[in-house]
Amino acid sequence: MRKLIHKLIKATYHFRSPDRRWPDWKEHDYTKQCWGHALQGMNGFKENGKFNITGHDSKRGLFFVEQMKEGDKLRVKFTNGKHGYLRIYRLSFFRDPSDMFSATVKFEGLIS
């Protein structure tokens, strides 16, 4: 019985893993931010749970570049110099300016 419960828990975790939910995710590098390529709202950062940010994606509208979408990861640099991932759970782009977006993200951990 104990082994069966362990298998069920493991299977549930495996199914709920974000990388399994979005197998074709892409990484977007925001470690070096500049005008037209930056994130705002990181002061609302939560280590556990989702939070909202806004930002600019300078590659928006270029047809030969992979566009940002839900499920993708944002690679960010924290004030302590460490890099980490934020997973995009909800994403919407503004009409004007068209490269500005609002996203609900969740901290996925530090990159070693």
Description:
The protein is of the alpha+beta class and 112 residues long. The protein has one domain: Archaeosine Trna-guanine Transglycosylase, Chain: A, domain 4 (Roll). It is built from 2 helices and 6 strands, in the order ααββββββ. It has helices spanning 2-16, 18-21; strands at residues 27-30, 39-40, 50-56, 73-77, 83-93, 100-110. It has a 6-stranded mixed sheet, with no helix packed on it. The radius of gyration is 16 Å and the shape is globular. The chain starts with a helix and ends with a strand. 12% of the residues are buried.
Give the amount of beta strand, in percent: 35-45%
Determine the mean pLDDT. 84
The largest β sheet comes out as:
6 strands, mixed
Total helix count?
2
The secondary-structure element order is HHEEEEEE
Head-to-tail CA distance between termini: 37 Å
Instruction: Give the helix/strand class.
Output: alpha+beta
Oligomer: single chain
Q: Report the radius of gyration as a whole number of Å.
A: 16 Å
Write the layout of secondary structure elements.
Elements: H1 2-16, H2 18-21, E1 27-30, E2 39-40, E3 50-56, E4 73-77, E5 83-93, E6 100-110
Parallel strand pairs: 1-4
Antiparallel strand pairs: 2-3, 3-6, 4-5, 5-6
